UniProtKB/TrEMBL annotation:
This is Oxidoreductase. The keyword Ligase does not apply. The keyword Oxidoreductase applies. Belongs to the short-chain dehydrogenases/reductases (SDR) family. InterPro entries: NAD(P)-bd_dom_sf, Sc_DH/Rdtase_CS, SDR_fam, SDR_oxidoreductase. It comes from the Bacteria. Keywords: Oxidoreductase.
C-alpha cells in the first residue's frame, strides 16, 4: 500500500484501457475514486475494489459533467485530481476523413476534456488546490499518418493545457499532460477507420492503418505500469508539466526536440528579421550617418 494520503480522483473513461488500469491502481492504493463511464455496468465491479463512486458520464454532455462533479463533491467533499482519459480514435488520411468524423473526434477528445475541466475548476478554485491531468498522446506532440484529425484534437488539448496551467498556477492548481505511445489497450482495435480509402495514400496512411491493426496485443506499453507512473508523477512534490509514457514516446519527443532546435537555429536570422527594426539601433545608425 502507498504511504500517500488518500485523495479524491475523478477519472473519465474507466471502462477499459488507461482509465480502467488507473482506477484499479488508485483503489488498490487507498485512494478515493469517482469512476465514470458511459456504461456504468462496465465499471460497477470497481465499487468492490475500494472507495469508489460509480457514475455515468458522456463527456460530450457538458451539463452531465457538471452533475457528476456536484455528485462527487456531495459524496466525497472535494475533488483533488481530475484525469481526462475518455477519448476515441480514427484511422484515415486527412482527405479520407469525413467531416462528421473529424468533428466527432474534436467533440469527444477536445471539447469533452474542456467540459470536465470547466465543471471541476470552480471546485478546485475554491479549494485553492487540485491537479488536472489530461491524457493526450505522443500523437499530440508529433503528427503521424492516418491519425491526422485524432492528432489535431490531441494537439488542441496540449495547447489548452499549457494556457490553463498559466491561468491556474497562482491559484494553487497543477496541470499535467500525459503522452503515451503504443500500449496494450483496446484503442487501436476499437477505433473506426475510413471505408473507402484513396489509393494515393496507400503507402502512407494505408500502411500506417495496417500497422496499427497488426500491433493490437503486441504493443510495448503496459497499462498497469502506465497507471503506476501517472500516480507517481501526480503525487510527487513537483509534478511534471508533461509525462511521456513508453520508450517510443521518449524517442519521438527527443527526435522532435532536436529537429525543432536545429531548424530554429538554421532559420533564426530570417525569423528575427520579420520584426520592425529596433528603434534604438535605427537611431544609432542615423546618428552615424
Amino acid at each position: 500500500m502507498t504511504t500517500q494520503p488518500s485523495q479524491v480522483w475523478m477519472v473519465t473513461g474507466c471502462s477499459t484501457g488507461f482509465g480502467r488500469s488507473l482506477a484499479e491502481h488508485l483503489l488498490d492504493h487507498g485512494q478515493k475514486v469517482v469512476a465514470t463511464a458511459r456504461d456504468v455496468a462496465s465499471v460497477a465491479d470497481l465499487a468492490d475494489r475500494g472507495d469508489a463512486l460509480i457514475l455515468p458520464l458522456d463527456v460530450v454532455n457538458r451539463e452531465q459533467c457538471t452533475e457528476v462533479v456536484e455528485a462527487a463533491v456531495r459524496h466525497f467533499g472535494a475533488i483533488d485530481v481530475l484525469v481526462n482519459n475518455a477519448g476515441i480514435g480514427y484511422f484515415g488520411a486527412i482527405e479520407e476523413t469525413d467531416d462528421k468524423i473529424a468533428r466527432l473526434l474534436f467533440d469527444v477528445n477536445f471539447f469533452g476534456t474542456a467540459n470536465t475541466i470547466n465543471a471541476v475548476l470552480p471546485v478546485m478554485r475554491t479549494q485553492r488546490s487540485g491537479t488536472i491531468i489530461n491524457l493526450t498522446s505522443i500523437g499530440g506532440l508529433s503528427g503521424f499518418a492516418a491519425v491526422g484529425y485524432y492528432s489535431a484534437s490531441k494537439f488542441a488539448v496540449e495547447g489548452l493545457s499549457e494556457s490553463l496551467r498559466i491561468e491556474v498556477a497562482p491559484l494553487g492548481l497543477n496541470v499535467m499532460v500525459v503522452e503515451p505511445s503504443g500500449f496494450r489497450t483496446n484503442w487501436a482495435a476499437s477505433s473506426n477507420e475510413v471505408e473507402n480509402p484513396i489509393d494515393d495514400y496507400d503507402q502512407t496512411a494505408g500502411q500506417a492503418r495496417r500497422a496499427y491493426h497488426q500491433s493490437v496485443g503486441n504493443q510495448a506499453g503496459d497499462p498497469a505500469r502506465a497507471a503506476a507512473a501517472i500516480f507517481t508523477a501526480a503525487t510527487s512534490a513537483q509534478p511534471p508539466r508533461r509525462l511521456l509514457l513508453g520508450n517510443e514516446a521518449v524517442d519521438v519527443a527527443l527526435a522532435k526536440a532536436a529537429t525543432l532546435q536545429a531548424e530554429i537555429a538554421a532559420w533564426e536570422h530570417v525569423s528575427r528579421a520579420a520584426d520592425f527594426p529596433d528603434e534604438d539601433n535605427t537611431d544609432e545608425q542615423d546618428d552615424q550617418r
